[in-house]
Amino acid sequence: MSKNKMPSGLKEPQLTRNAEIVLKKRYLRKGPNGESIEDIKGLFWRVASSVAKEEQKYEASPYNWEELAKIFYEMITSFKFLPNSPTLMNAGTKLGQLAACFVLPVEDSMEAIFDALKYAALIHKSGGGTGFSFSRLRPKNSRVGSTGGVASGPVSFMKIFNTATEQVKQGGTRRGANMGILRVDHPDILDFIKAKERDGELNNFNLSVALTEDFIQAVEKDEEYELVSPHRKEVKGKLKAREVFSLLVQKAWESGDPGIIFLDRINRDNPTPKQGEIESTNPCGEQPLLPYEACNLGSINLAKFYDPKKQDINWQELKTTIHLAVRFLDNVIDASKYPLPQITEKVHLNRKIGLGVMGWADLLFQLKVPYNSQQALKLAEQVMSFIQTESKAASKCLAQERGPFPAYKESIYYEKKLGPYRNATTTTIAPTGTLSIIAACSSGIEPLFALSFVRNVMDGETLVEVNPYFESVLKQKGLYSPKLMEEVAKKGSIQKLDFIPEEIKRVFVTAMDIEPEYHLKMQAAFQKYTDNAVSKTVNLPNSATQEDIWNIYWLAYELGCKGVTVYRDGCKNAQVLCTGKAD
Ligand code: ADP
Fold this sequence. Notes:
The chain is of the alpha/beta class and 583 residues long. The chain has a domain at 101-281: Anaerobic Ribonucleotide-triphosphate Reductase Large Chain. The strands form 6 sheets. Strands 1, 2, 3, 6, 7, 10, 13, 16, 19 and 20 form a 10-stranded mixed sheet that branches. It has a two-stranded antiparallel ribbon with strand order 4-5. Strand 19, helix 21 (546-558) and strand 20 (563-568) form a beta-alpha-beta unit. The longest helix is centred in the middle third of the chain and has 29 residues, at 374-402. It is globular and about 70 Å long. It binds adenosine-5'-diphosphate.
């Protein structure tokens, strides 16, 4: 472990009790007997200093690395910005794997399938999540030339990946997460769509069907479309597009899985098409990547950028943080040790980073803007276009200092004369499942699930947790009481509580109070200014119909989203854990 001496005078991070529990249990470095060998301040200094140290490699850097380490430390411990979990866990350690997102190719041969399985195990062990497209595997019952037997098909191989994942607990911290993707024109598509219909089946996978433009056109025109076997490129049959779409909708209605991705749209935005097609995303869907590519993410906590004096966003401070965060994430690429040489090569070629946001709902609470309002959608576009523009400006500055990403001359930036950038992509919106607990803010761009809820802390102890902005507004109005908080915890929402004033009800809306269309419109507003994709769940009430889901999927397409995930309240499957919660 590299030990960069901690300077005196560093501020102690102010943590909530939950943040402290999560950090102690999962993030602090442990010795051979499982005892912590650093404290929380030490953890953040390890991360800030080891990432800042990369600065020394670049002669044109305007920073002394030790000064930069202090600046990074301040940015992280004030919770204005956090890098993804593997960076917090592994920066400055022997393992040193800092990226959350990976995509591995699965070729159509026994050797290649089991190579991918082994690579996935290595990645899971290091704290990363893996995405795979199984579209290149020959369909079940096709002939296997070398043995004369028959192939078992993508879904049965996925079960092996699922079992392996179950066994590899990641570095003792979190179980692995996978994304499994199949093209809609693969002959086994119906099996794939039904693959999670039984409870517990493929529990370590999120599934997404990759929809093509041709398929969408066929749904629109109520036509058939062709199924093509990938190994022979032969047409194997036809299906009615609307029937497949209906089945997709039905299964998503039953269990939330599969989601959909719009594959051609993802490839339309592929910044390096000469390196091949994008076939898959990472586990939670926000990061499309080329085979063997990895990406590290980081999230700006928007809740920290409210200026109470101006009752507005502190744009200047936000700009400073974006520029620093891009430098930080670019350094992470160099600081990270990847589990395979193919991955190191690809990552260094394109240098993708994914800067996103969390604390969006908390920012809206402070601005007193309801999540489900036109004003919120407008603000979402304004905030994300600012982050997109500034992150691109920062990447351009880094290109001048350090050179553009090596594949720049083969990229769309060169072709379209957009100028050299240091990174092939700069923006992604992650779910921030654990990061938002550490930073004590609302996750990603999601609304709150509940304004107050009972959290099980360790050893059967429970705690009523209240959103701080909600608590402070109630206190101002003289409405706060612990009893009321217990009442709100039972319901989550305040919409049916008569004695709460309308103006408070309007602003403090929760996931289930928000119409599904607004969930989706919010996703689309952020997607408009995001290079990669946006993690978002469209929450539906239990009473939602299959037609509602059909309409949501269609609207997602029309609004320019790259994919969509729905979750109907109380439907049978729990989602794959991407939150880093206890397994
Ligand atoms: P965090 O808050 O822990 O940094 P996110 O919830 O933002 O993570 O998820 C970001 C990405 O990190 C996911 O899309 C996935 O690629 C990876 N990831 C999240 N949880 C896990 C997990 N349990 N195992 C493996 N990878 C994970």
